[in-house]
Amino acid sequence: MFQAWRVKIREAQAAFEAGRFEEAGRLLTEGKLQSYRPGQQLSLQVAEQMAGRAQRRVAAGDTVAGWRDLGIAAQLADNHQAVASARQELLAMGLAQAERHVKDGQLRAAGACLDRLSN
């Protein structure tokens, strides 16, 4: 008999392959599929993609979506190098943005940037 967790991992794999990373991540975490080796491997793959997308989104100016993607990646594989690198890069980008606001005299905007970084 085929175990139910294998079916869920296949669903998560299909979502990942279709580029639906949030859905894949949700399936992996809700179903506790990370306790199985195939789930762990897929979690790392999804986390890598989410971390990369987070960096691209922040670079394009969509910081909210970038940080949301990084949060999902961290849930899946917080200790993974791609997640740690993305977190460092996003923090550096956020600090640079806050610094630009300060230089332009936009202190409220700088404060808002720093608030986002602290969450």
Write up what this structure looks like:
The protein has helices at 4-17, 21-30, 37-59, 63-77, 81-103, 107-118. It is mainly α. The protein is elongated, with a radius of gyration of 17 Å.
Please tag this protein with its features.
119 residues, mainly alpha, 82% helix, 0% strand
Poorly predicted parts: none
What percent of residues adopt helix (DSSP H or I)?
Answer: over 70%
Total helices: the number is 6
> What is the count of β-strands?
0
Radius of gyration: 17 Å
Question: What is the H/E string?
Answer: HHHHHH
User: What percent strand?
Assistant: under 5%
Biggest sheet layout: none
**Alpha-beta content class:** mainly alpha
Give the terminus-to-terminus CA distance. 45 Å
Shape descriptor reads: elongated
Mean pLDDT: 89
Brief description of this entry?
This protein is an all-alpha fold.
